[in-house]
Amino acid sequence: MPECPRHRAGPWQSGPVDLDAYTFAHEPDWVRLEALSKRSRLTGAEVDELVRLYQATATDLSTVRSSVPDPRTVMRLSQLLSRARTRLTGAHAPVWHEVATFFTVSFPVVLYRIRWWIVAVMVAFLAVSVVTGWYLVENRDVLNAVIPPSVQQEYVEDAFVSYYDPGVSFGAMVWTNNSWIAAVCVASGITGIGPVYMLFQNAWSIGLIGAVMTVHGELGLFLQLLSPHGLLELTAIFVAGAAGLRVFWAWLAPGPRPRGQALSEAGRALFTTALGLVVVLGVSGLIEGFVTGSAMYWWLKIVIGAVALAGFWVYVLTLGRSAARAGETGDLEPDRAGYAVATAG
Protein backbone atom coordinates (compact mmCIF):
# COMPACT_ATOMS: atom_id res chain seq x y z
CA MET A 1 0.00 0.00 0.00
CA PRO A 2 1.56 3.32 -1.03
CA GLU A 3 2.32 5.65 1.83
CA CYS A 4 1.99 9.41 1.78
CA PRO A 5 5.33 11.19 1.91
CA ARG A 6 6.11 12.58 5.33
CA HIS A 7 7.22 15.93 4.05
CA ARG A 8 5.03 17.84 1.60
CA ALA A 9 5.45 21.37 0.34
CA GLY A 10 2.91 23.68 1.96
CA PRO A 11 1.80 27.28 1.68
CA TRP A 12 3.98 28.15 4.65
CA GLN A 13 7.12 27.47 2.60
CA SER A 14 8.79 30.47 1.04
CA GLY A 15 10.02 30.77 -2.50
CA PRO A 16 8.40 30.13 -5.87
CA VAL A 17 7.06 26.69 -6.74
CA ASP A 18 7.95 25.00 -10.01
CA LEU A 19 4.53 23.71 -11.07
CA ASP A 20 5.88 21.01 -13.39
CA ALA A 21 8.22 19.66 -10.73
CA TYR A 22 5.55 19.92 -8.06
CA THR A 23 3.06 18.05 -10.23
CA PHE A 24 5.61 15.36 -11.08
CA ALA A 25 6.40 14.84 -7.38
CA HIS A 26 2.77 14.56 -6.24
CA GLU A 27 1.16 12.99 -9.30
CA PRO A 28 1.31 9.44 -7.85
CA ASP A 29 -0.67 10.53 -4.78
CA TRP A 30 -3.30 12.27 -6.92
CA VAL A 31 -3.68 9.24 -9.17
CA ARG A 32 -3.96 6.96 -6.14
CA LEU A 33 -6.59 9.24 -4.54
CA GLU A 34 -8.61 9.20 -7.74
CA ALA A 35 -8.42 5.41 -7.93
CA LEU A 36 -9.56 4.97 -4.31
CA SER A 37 -12.39 7.48 -4.80
CA LYS A 38 -13.79 5.39 -7.67
CA ARG A 39 -13.79 2.05 -5.82
CA SER A 40 -17.16 0.75 -4.70
CA ARG A 41 -15.67 -1.10 -1.71
CA LEU A 42 -12.71 -0.17 0.47
CA THR A 43 -10.89 -2.05 3.18
CA GLY A 44 -10.17 -0.39 6.52
CA ALA A 45 -6.58 0.28 5.49
CA GLU A 46 -7.72 1.79 2.18
CA VAL A 47 -10.15 4.10 3.99
CA ASP A 48 -7.28 5.33 6.19
CA GLU A 49 -5.17 5.84 3.08
CA LEU A 50 -7.99 7.72 1.38
CA VAL A 51 -8.27 10.09 4.35
CA ARG A 52 -4.50 10.74 4.39
CA LEU A 53 -4.39 11.36 0.66
CA TYR A 54 -7.43 13.62 0.87
CA GLN A 55 -5.75 15.78 3.51
CA ALA A 56 -2.47 15.84 1.60
CA THR A 57 -4.15 16.80 -1.65
CA ALA A 58 -6.03 19.57 0.13
CA THR A 59 -2.62 20.90 1.15
CA ASP A 60 -1.44 20.59 -2.45
CA LEU A 61 -4.41 22.63 -3.62
CA SER A 62 -3.59 25.32 -1.08
CA THR A 63 0.04 25.39 -2.25
CA VAL A 64 -0.87 25.63 -5.92
CA ARG A 65 -3.46 28.34 -5.32
CA SER A 66 -1.13 30.49 -3.24
CA SER A 67 2.03 30.03 -5.32
CA VAL A 68 1.19 29.24 -8.94
CA PRO A 69 -2.62 29.40 -9.39
CA ASP A 70 -2.73 27.46 -12.64
CA PRO A 71 -6.46 27.18 -13.54
CA ARG A 72 -6.21 23.61 -14.89
CA THR A 73 -4.39 22.28 -11.86
CA VAL A 74 -6.68 24.10 -9.45
CA MET A 75 -9.75 22.73 -11.23
CA ARG A 76 -8.33 19.22 -11.34
CA LEU A 77 -7.50 19.15 -7.64
CA SER A 78 -10.82 20.74 -6.69
CA GLN A 79 -12.73 18.09 -8.61
CA LEU A 80 -10.55 15.34 -7.21
CA LEU A 81 -11.18 16.52 -3.66
CA SER A 82 -14.90 16.78 -4.35
CA ARG A 83 -15.05 13.15 -5.52
CA ALA A 84 -12.96 12.00 -2.58
CA ARG A 85 -15.16 13.88 -0.13
CA THR A 86 -18.25 12.27 -1.65
CA ARG A 87 -16.62 8.86 -1.25
CA LEU A 88 -15.82 9.59 2.39
CA THR A 89 -19.13 11.13 3.40
CA GLY A 90 -21.51 9.07 1.27
CA ALA A 91 -23.23 9.15 -2.09
CA HIS A 92 -24.78 12.17 -3.72
CA ALA A 93 -28.37 13.04 -3.01
CA PRO A 94 -30.94 11.44 -5.33
CA VAL A 95 -31.45 13.10 -8.70
CA TRP A 96 -34.94 14.25 -7.76
CA HIS A 97 -33.47 16.04 -4.74
CA GLU A 98 -30.89 17.80 -6.91
CA VAL A 99 -33.61 18.91 -9.33
CA ALA A 100 -35.82 20.12 -6.48
CA THR A 101 -32.91 22.08 -4.98
CA PHE A 102 -32.18 23.66 -8.34
CA PHE A 103 -35.73 24.97 -8.79
CA THR A 104 -36.38 25.92 -5.16
CA VAL A 105 -32.98 27.38 -4.25
CA SER A 106 -30.35 27.76 -6.97
CA PHE A 107 -32.43 29.20 -9.81
CA PRO A 108 -34.63 31.59 -7.80
CA VAL A 109 -31.74 32.95 -5.72
CA VAL A 110 -29.65 33.65 -8.83
CA LEU A 111 -32.58 35.57 -10.34
CA TYR A 112 -33.20 37.38 -7.07
CA ARG A 113 -29.60 38.55 -6.92
CA ILE A 114 -29.81 40.09 -10.43
CA ARG A 115 -33.39 41.39 -10.06
CA TRP A 116 -32.37 45.03 -10.45
CA TRP A 117 -30.37 44.16 -13.57
CA ILE A 118 -33.52 42.55 -14.96
CA VAL A 119 -35.55 45.66 -14.17
CA ALA A 120 -32.92 47.92 -15.78
CA VAL A 121 -32.87 45.79 -18.95
CA MET A 122 -36.67 45.80 -19.05
CA VAL A 123 -36.88 49.58 -18.75
CA ALA A 124 -34.27 50.11 -21.47
CA PHE A 125 -35.93 47.55 -23.77
CA LEU A 126 -39.39 49.08 -23.42
CA ALA A 127 -37.97 52.58 -23.89
CA VAL A 128 -36.34 51.57 -27.18
CA SER A 129 -39.55 49.87 -28.36
CA VAL A 130 -41.81 52.80 -27.48
CA VAL A 131 -39.48 55.44 -28.91
CA THR A 132 -39.00 53.42 -32.11
CA GLY A 133 -42.74 52.95 -32.54
CA TRP A 134 -43.52 56.59 -31.83
CA TYR A 135 -40.83 57.85 -34.22
CA LEU A 136 -42.00 55.63 -37.08
CA VAL A 137 -45.64 56.56 -36.57
CA GLU A 138 -44.74 60.25 -36.64
CA ASN A 139 -42.46 59.81 -39.65
CA ARG A 140 -44.43 57.73 -42.14
CA ASP A 141 -41.86 58.24 -44.90
CA VAL A 142 -39.24 56.49 -42.78
CA LEU A 143 -41.65 53.66 -41.99
CA ASN A 144 -42.56 53.28 -45.67
CA ALA A 145 -38.86 53.18 -46.57
CA VAL A 146 -38.32 50.34 -44.11
CA ILE A 147 -41.48 48.41 -45.08
CA PRO A 148 -43.31 49.29 -48.31
CA PRO A 149 -47.01 50.21 -47.79
CA SER A 150 -48.23 47.18 -49.78
CA VAL A 151 -46.25 44.84 -47.55
CA GLN A 152 -47.57 46.64 -44.47
CA GLN A 153 -51.15 46.12 -45.60
CA GLU A 154 -50.63 42.42 -46.24
CA TYR A 155 -48.90 42.00 -42.90
CA VAL A 156 -51.72 43.70 -40.98
CA GLU A 157 -54.55 41.92 -42.77
CA ASP A 158 -53.15 38.41 -42.81
CA ALA A 159 -49.56 37.65 -41.78
CA PHE A 160 -49.67 38.96 -38.21
CA VAL A 161 -52.79 37.06 -37.16
CA SER A 162 -52.09 33.88 -39.16
CA TYR A 163 -48.64 33.63 -37.59
CA TYR A 164 -50.22 32.51 -34.31
CA ASP A 165 -51.32 29.07 -35.46
CA PRO A 166 -52.43 27.07 -32.40
CA GLY A 167 -50.81 23.69 -31.88
CA VAL A 168 -47.89 21.71 -30.54
CA SER A 169 -45.62 22.28 -33.55
CA PHE A 170 -46.05 26.05 -33.35
CA GLY A 171 -45.38 26.05 -29.61
CA ALA A 172 -42.23 23.96 -30.14
CA MET A 173 -41.03 26.30 -32.90
CA VAL A 174 -41.56 29.35 -30.69
CA TRP A 175 -39.80 27.67 -27.77
CA THR A 176 -36.79 26.82 -29.95
CA ASN A 177 -36.57 30.34 -31.40
CA ASN A 178 -36.84 32.07 -28.03
CA SER A 179 -34.37 29.65 -26.45
CA TRP A 180 -31.93 30.55 -29.23
CA ILE A 181 -32.32 34.27 -28.51
CA ALA A 182 -31.78 33.68 -24.80
CA ALA A 183 -28.77 31.45 -25.52
CA VAL A 184 -27.15 34.16 -27.65
CA CYS A 185 -27.62 36.70 -24.86
CA VAL A 186 -26.11 34.26 -22.38
CA ALA A 187 -23.23 32.99 -24.52
CA SER A 188 -22.14 36.47 -25.64
CA GLY A 189 -22.43 37.98 -22.17
CA ILE A 190 -18.71 38.31 -21.59
CA THR A 191 -18.40 40.64 -24.61
CA GLY A 192 -20.95 43.13 -23.29
CA ILE A 193 -21.87 43.82 -26.92
CA GLY A 194 -23.73 40.61 -27.78
CA PRO A 195 -26.57 40.99 -25.25
CA VAL A 196 -26.98 44.70 -26.03
CA TYR A 197 -27.17 44.03 -29.77
CA MET A 198 -29.66 41.18 -29.39
CA LEU A 199 -31.86 43.14 -26.98
CA PHE A 200 -31.77 46.27 -29.15
CA GLN A 201 -32.60 44.28 -32.28
CA ASN A 202 -35.65 42.70 -30.65
CA ALA A 203 -36.79 45.97 -29.06
CA TRP A 204 -36.52 47.74 -32.42
CA SER A 205 -38.47 44.93 -34.14
CA ILE A 206 -41.32 45.15 -31.64
CA GLY A 207 -41.42 48.94 -32.05
CA LEU A 208 -41.49 48.54 -35.84
CA ILE A 209 -44.34 46.01 -35.79
CA GLY A 210 -46.24 48.15 -33.30
CA ALA A 211 -45.84 51.16 -35.58
CA VAL A 212 -47.16 49.23 -38.59
CA MET A 213 -50.18 48.00 -36.63
CA THR A 214 -50.84 51.48 -35.21
CA VAL A 215 -50.70 53.21 -38.59
CA HIS A 216 -53.30 50.77 -39.91
CA GLY A 217 -55.57 51.13 -36.90
CA GLU A 218 -54.79 47.75 -35.33
CA LEU A 219 -52.82 48.68 -32.22
CA GLY A 220 -55.41 46.95 -30.05
CA LEU A 221 -55.05 43.70 -32.00
CA PHE A 222 -51.28 43.96 -31.70
CA LEU A 223 -51.47 44.25 -27.91
CA GLN A 224 -54.07 41.48 -27.66
CA LEU A 225 -51.91 39.00 -29.55
CA LEU A 226 -48.63 40.02 -27.95
CA SER A 227 -49.69 40.24 -24.31
CA PRO A 228 -50.73 36.63 -23.47
CA HIS A 229 -47.34 35.07 -24.12
CA GLY A 230 -45.22 38.20 -24.50
CA LEU A 231 -45.35 39.19 -20.85
CA LEU A 232 -43.49 36.06 -19.75
CA GLU A 233 -41.53 35.60 -22.97
CA LEU A 234 -40.04 39.08 -22.93
CA THR A 235 -39.29 38.78 -19.22
CA ALA A 236 -37.26 35.64 -19.97
CA ILE A 237 -35.33 37.59 -22.61
CA PHE A 238 -34.77 40.40 -20.10
CA VAL A 239 -33.40 37.82 -17.64
CA ALA A 240 -31.05 36.36 -20.26
CA GLY A 241 -29.79 39.81 -21.20
CA ALA A 242 -29.33 40.83 -17.58
CA ALA A 243 -27.42 37.64 -16.75
CA GLY A 244 -25.17 38.10 -19.77
CA LEU A 245 -24.42 41.72 -18.91
CA ARG A 246 -23.77 40.74 -15.30
CA VAL A 247 -20.89 38.54 -16.50
CA PHE A 248 -19.47 41.45 -18.48
CA TRP A 249 -19.72 43.67 -15.40
CA ALA A 250 -17.99 41.03 -13.26
CA TRP A 251 -15.08 41.15 -15.71
CA LEU A 252 -15.10 44.95 -15.89
CA ALA A 253 -15.54 45.65 -12.16
CA PRO A 254 -14.79 42.54 -10.07
CA GLY A 255 -14.68 44.50 -6.82
CA PRO A 256 -12.58 43.05 -3.97
CA ARG A 257 -12.56 39.57 -5.55
CA PRO A 258 -9.87 38.39 -7.98
CA ARG A 259 -11.09 38.93 -11.54
CA GLY A 260 -10.95 35.21 -12.30
CA GLN A 261 -13.07 34.36 -9.26
CA ALA A 262 -15.63 37.06 -10.08
CA LEU A 263 -15.93 35.77 -13.65
CA SER A 264 -16.23 32.16 -12.48
CA GLU A 265 -19.02 33.01 -10.04
CA ALA A 266 -20.91 35.07 -12.62
CA GLY A 267 -20.37 32.36 -15.24
CA ARG A 268 -21.83 29.63 -13.04
CA ALA A 269 -24.80 31.88 -12.24
CA LEU A 270 -25.18 32.40 -15.98
CA PHE A 271 -25.28 28.65 -16.58
CA THR A 272 -27.91 28.24 -13.86
CA THR A 273 -29.96 31.01 -15.45
CA ALA A 274 -29.74 29.40 -18.88
CA LEU A 275 -30.98 26.05 -17.59
CA GLY A 276 -33.88 27.60 -15.70
CA LEU A 277 -34.93 29.74 -18.64
CA VAL A 278 -35.49 26.61 -20.70
CA VAL A 279 -38.48 25.88 -18.46
CA VAL A 280 -39.68 29.51 -18.36
CA LEU A 281 -39.58 29.75 -22.15
CA GLY A 282 -41.29 26.37 -22.36
CA VAL A 283 -44.24 27.77 -20.39
CA SER A 284 -44.27 30.87 -22.61
CA GLY A 285 -44.21 28.65 -25.70
CA LEU A 286 -47.20 26.68 -24.42
CA ILE A 287 -49.14 29.90 -23.89
CA GLU A 288 -48.23 31.17 -27.34
CA GLY A 289 -49.04 27.83 -28.93
CA PHE A 290 -52.36 27.13 -27.21
CA VAL A 291 -53.68 30.43 -25.86
CA THR A 292 -52.58 33.37 -28.02
CA GLY A 293 -54.06 32.09 -31.27
CA SER A 294 -57.01 30.27 -29.74
CA ALA A 295 -60.70 31.22 -29.82
CA MET A 296 -60.69 32.34 -26.16
CA TYR A 297 -61.96 35.78 -25.21
CA TRP A 298 -59.12 38.28 -25.61
CA TRP A 299 -59.42 39.43 -22.01
CA LEU A 300 -59.05 35.85 -20.78
CA LYS A 301 -55.89 35.44 -22.85
CA ILE A 302 -54.38 38.55 -21.30
CA VAL A 303 -55.38 37.37 -17.81
CA ILE A 304 -53.58 34.06 -18.43
CA GLY A 305 -50.46 35.93 -19.54
CA ALA A 306 -50.61 38.26 -16.55
CA VAL A 307 -51.02 35.36 -14.14
CA ALA A 308 -47.99 33.60 -15.68
CA LEU A 309 -45.89 36.75 -15.27
CA ALA A 310 -47.10 37.33 -11.72
CA GLY A 311 -46.33 33.71 -10.87
CA PHE A 312 -42.79 34.12 -12.17
CA TRP A 313 -42.09 37.19 -10.02
CA VAL A 314 -43.75 35.70 -6.94
CA TYR A 315 -41.52 32.67 -7.43
CA VAL A 316 -38.39 34.84 -7.69
CA LEU A 317 -39.19 37.23 -4.87
CA THR A 318 -40.38 34.61 -2.36
CA LEU A 319 -38.12 31.62 -2.90
CA GLY A 320 -35.23 33.80 -4.05
CA ARG A 321 -35.43 36.15 -1.06
CA SER A 322 -35.79 33.22 1.34
CA ALA A 323 -32.74 31.48 -0.11
CA ALA A 324 -30.70 34.71 -0.08
CA ARG A 325 -31.54 35.34 3.57
CA ALA A 326 -30.41 31.79 4.35
CA GLY A 327 -27.02 32.66 2.85
CA GLU A 328 -27.49 30.81 -0.43
CA THR A 329 -25.93 32.23 -3.58
CA GLY A 330 -26.70 29.53 -6.12
CA ASP A 331 -22.95 28.95 -6.51
CA LEU A 332 -20.90 25.87 -5.69
CA GLU A 333 -19.58 25.38 -2.19
CA PRO A 334 -16.25 27.20 -1.75
CA ASP A 335 -14.10 24.06 -1.70
CA ARG A 336 -15.86 22.56 -4.74
CA ALA A 337 -15.41 25.84 -6.60
CA GLY A 338 -11.72 25.89 -5.68
CA TYR A 339 -11.83 29.05 -3.51
CA ALA A 340 -11.21 27.36 -0.20
CA VAL A 341 -9.11 24.43 0.86
CA ALA A 342 -11.14 21.36 1.75
CA THR A 343 -10.16 19.73 5.03
CA ALA A 344 -10.94 16.40 6.54
CA GLY A 345 -11.84 15.46 10.05
Helix and strand topology:
Elements: H1 19-38, H2 44-67, H3 71-89, H4 95-113, H5 115-138, H6 140-146, H7 149-163, H8 168-187, H9 193-215, H10 219-252, H11 259-292, H12 298-325, H13 334-337
User: Given the structure, what is the number of helices?
Assistant: 13
Number of E-state strands: 0
Written as H for each helix and E for each strand, in order along the chain, the element string is HHHHHHHHHHHHH
Helix content: over 70%
| C-alpha Rg (nearest Å) | 27 Å
Major sheet size, sense and barrel closure? none
Query: What percentage of the residues does DSSP assign to strands (E)?
Result: under 5%
Through-space gap between termini: 22 Å
User: What is the arithmetic mean of pLDDT?
Assistant: 80
Q: Could you name the ranges where pLDDT drops below 50 across 5 or more consecutive residues? A: 1-14, 332-345
From the structure provided, what is the oligomeric state, counting identical versus distinct chains?
single chain
So what's the overall shape?
Answer: elongated
Class by SSE composition:
mainly alpha
